[in-house]
Design a protein that fits this description.
Helix content is 38%, strand content 8%. Strand 1 and strand 2 form a beta hairpin. The protein has a domain of 44 residues. By secondary structure, it is mainly alpha-helical.
Length: 74
C-alpha cells in the first residue's frame, strides 16, 4: 500500500506529525480524498487531513467508512 500523490510530508524533524501520518496510514487513510457529506444539500467537500494526534483519532472514527481498509472488505 502506498500513500496517495496528494500526500505532503511534514518536516523531517517533526516527530509528532510523523506519528500522526503513521497512525492514519495504519488505519487505512493513505491521503486519498476524504469527503464530508451534507445530506440536506447533497454536496460533498474535501476534508483536510489532521496534523495532531487527538484530531487524527477523531478523524479516523468519523470517516472510518472511507478508509481504504474498509473499502477492501466490500
Amino acid at each position: 500500500m502506498f500513500l496517495d500523490h496528494k500526500f505532503r510530508p511534514p518536516a523531517q524533524t517533526n516527530v509528532n506529525e510523523w506519528q500522526v501520518v503513521k497512525f492514519l496510514f495504519e488505519k487505512g487513510f493513505i491521503y486519498q480524498h476524504v469527503y464530508e457529506k451534507y445530506e440536506r444539500s447533497g454536496y460533498s467537500v474535501y476534508v483536510p487531513y489532521p496534523r495532531k494526534m487527538t484530531e487524527a483519532e477523531n478523524f479516523v472514527e468519523k470517516y472510518k467508512d472511507q478508509s481504504i481498509l474498509n473499502r477492501r472488505k466490500d
